[in-house]
Design brief:
Helices cover 37% and strands 11% of the residues. It has 177 residues and is an alpha+beta fold. The strands form two sheets. A three-stranded antiparallel beta sheet has the order 1-2-3, with no helix packed on it.
């Protein structure tokens, strides 16, 4: 029998509302197969099933590559491009603008995560918490300048005791009674 993939609506929400025609088929042996989506095409008066992936008469198509994979990035170039267009920051958005912005955001995220991971390791923890992100940002001069006005929830403060409040050090040979 055929049934829709479990969690189909969750998948649609994660992928931005796009719908797919993939159907899971359960065989008698218990194996699961995924069929390619098919469309019916009218050819010379008769209906013919054509695989949507193959196309009609185009030859072999290479698998589509995302702009993120072409640029060698993890951050979503297409989504950033969409937000740039829909944000109405300007009338036109160049093709390289979203790639550049994605690369800068990915670099900043990697830098902060690396420093936060080091802070977590210094505190003998395996999980990065907001406190570690706060320590990472405030101890780095450039990141502190960039994120100076940012308040990190549950971040706490940087440990600092003013020099005036510290006890004075007395010299050993100068004790007068």
């Amino acid at each position: 029998y055929q049934r829709r993939v479990r969690g189909f609506h969750v998948l649609i929400n994660l992928l931005g509302g796009r719908q797919f025609n993939t159907i899971e088929t359960k065989e008698m042996e218990g194996e699961t197969k995924t069929e390619k989506p098919t469309t019916t095409k009218k050819v010379a008066g008769s209906k013919k099933k054509v695989s949507a992936a193959s196309g009609a008469g185009r030859g072999k198509r290479t698998a589509s590559q995302s702009r993120s994979s072409r640029a060698g990035l993890q951050f979503p170039v297409g989504r950033i491009s969409r937000h740039l267009r829909e944000g109405r920051f300007s009338e036109r958005v160049g093709a390289g603008a979203s790639v550049y912005l994605a690369a800068v955001l990915e670099y900043l995220a990697a830098e902060i995560l690396e420093l936060a991971g080091n802070a977590a390791r210094d505190n003998k923890k395996r999980r990065v918490i907001p406190r570690h992100i706060q320590l990472a940002i405030r101890n780095d001069e450039e990141l502190n300048k960039l994120l100076g006005d940012v308040v990190i929830a549950s971040g706490g403060v940087i440990p600092n005791i003013h020099a005036v409040l510290l006890p004075k050090k007395s010299k050993k040979g100068d004790d007068k009674e």
